[in-house]
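ingest -> validate -> predict -> emit
validate: passed (alphabet ok, no gaps, 324 aa)
predict: started
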Amino acid sequence: MTTSIRPRPMTEAVAPLPENSGERRPLHEPLPANQRAIVLMVILIPLAGLLIAIAYAWGWGVGWLEIALLVGMYLATGLGITVGYHRLFTHKSFETGKTVTAILAVLGAMAVEGPLLRWVAFHRCHHQHSDHEDDPHSPHGHGSGVGGILRGFWNAHTGWMLRRSDRHMARYAKDLRKDRLLRVISSLFPLWVVLGLTIPALIGGLVTLSWSGAALGFIWGGLVRILFVHHVTWSVNSVCHLWGTRPFRSHDESRNNAIVGALALGEGWHNNHHAFPTSARHGLRWWEFDLSWIVIWTLHKTGLAWDIRTPSRERIDSRRNTRP
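emit:
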């Protein structure tokens, strides 16, 4: 497998946030009312879907079809985010052809985390300013004590989406804007959201030959799946910058968290990722399960991915954290 490590990952140029800083970062302006309403709908409608699913299951139980649609759509759209939006488009950890590129971009959009270009811009900004003042979703710098932790957790997990912090984000995705395929897919984001809700509804209806099956497919494979993908992904921003281990040096508070590592398909090995941002592999030790890396490795073995970027053993050893 090709190993290609480019010098100076983004995070190496960023000054670290002073430890135990009690300074509260300046609050961004709130979003305009109409945009704020859309974001709240994206957050709350999947939650309503979960409540409906629980109420229905309380009386009628949950069938294997609903579970299969939930898990299948979770894996498909989650990998669209982890392999596509994150490792391919944001960090260029590997190369692939137009067909795989389009599939990953569409699956990522079905996760309902925003258009491709916007997602990439925010994540690159996060790496450039990780846990520093201009980080769009850091849990640090929001005050001391339990209150500061709670405010920081809210900001990193969900609150940042309700503020206008993307005024200068366009510059972080200039390279992707030059690609016509990616521009078109990003601009068609609402279509992919609808498709991601329609597919499980159609499967549920066709398998059961009933409207109730379609409704349950929509709820479990659509709304409940979106809720789980959202909160697991957002936990990488919040949980993985507060709780976990730091085996490698990085200019931020990124941490490895095994629970998030499993649920987020390998993204929870977050300290590994911030130490080696362009690596296609986040789980660097044999026991750090990284499903997204397995998918990329499989694509490589079948000739569908190439120029896979992983750190050398010497590079890994040189960045190990020697602090107690």
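The chain has 13 helices and four strands.
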